[in-house]
Each structure stands twice: as structure tokens, then as C-alpha cells.
Amino acid sequence: MAEKIAARTRAEAHFSASEQRDAMVKAEIAKERAATDAKTARLKALRLAKEAEDAATAAANPVPAPKKKKPRRINAG
Whole-structure pTM over 0.85, yes or no? Predict the structure, then answer.
């Protein structure tokens, strides 16, 4: 009877340690995911700000339209 209790105790200890490792891994993954999401949001905000600045600069300094070139005539003869 004592052997069964000891075996059960060892098994429960093993499974509880496994559950603790699983919980730590899941917490680490969630932390990394949150860091990646924050980084992505920051980079997106920077990109949108740069695009807005570029659009304002382009509106303030329009590029003149290129001059049209006359087609070249080919002499037949």
C-alpha cells in the first residue's frame, strides 16, 4: 500500500513539474509576443509618420511635369 502511495506521489510531482514548465513556456511566449506586437506598432507609427511627412513635402514642392519629346522622323530614302 505504501508503495502505491509513493508511486502516486512521484507521478503527481512529475506532472506538477511538467505543468509548471508548460506554464513558464507559455508565459515566455506571451511576453515575447507582446514585445513583438509593441515593436510592430512602433514601427508602423514611424512609417505612417514618415509617409505623412513625405506627402506634405511633395504637396509643398510639386515636381514639374516632364517636357514631352517630339517623335523623331525616320527618313525614308
Answer: no
